[in-house]
Amino acid sequence: MPTNSFLEKYPNLFREVVWPWGPTRATFILFDSPPAKEKISNINIVPRLAENWVSIRLKDGTQEIPGGTLEPNESYLDAIRRELLEEAGAQLISFKIIGGWHCFSLADKPFRPHLTHPEFYRVVGVGEIKIIKRPENPPDGEVVELVEVASMEATMNRFLSIGRPDLSELYQLAFELN
Length: 178
Known about the structure:
Blueprint: H1 4-9, H2 11-14, E1 17-19, E2 24-30, E3 40-49, E4 52-58, E5 63-64, E6 67-69, H3 76-88, E7 90-92, E8 96-105, E9 119-131, E10 144-150, H4 152-161, H5 165-177
Parallel strand pairs: 3-9
Antiparallel strand pairs: 1-2, 2-8, 3-4, 3-6, 4-5, 4-10, 7-9, 8-9
Helix pairs in contact: 4-5
């Protein structure tokens, strides 16, 4: 459970939201270790490249953080390694879990048959990466147009400019807990 100081400092991150995909009710929580592996359906990383921070811009102009859904029998670490290659053309150097969204799907069935339903977690970590190639952009995924590397302030402002104060605060939290 976040302390009162975190709730005050990151109000947009820690408030409950309803995501349209699914739809899903989600609340960000802090934890030191991952939830039970069968409860993890998604993984994200707030990636760092030396002193800079990385985000991705999709073809539709949406700014995002790398990550995605676990494949059947895939560990969250294998999933984030795969997602980083697909979305950022990057290799994982280090990874530290900081928290995640505790989610409740409002849909009749899971997004994919192998995922836990209706309760699951979207785990989030912070870590160092190394960009080694262009994003792979697999046919069944989102199309990444640009991998953006910038200072923490510029990255936070990028998320604020598109109306995503929650992701701006997530990067700030990752910086603080890194």
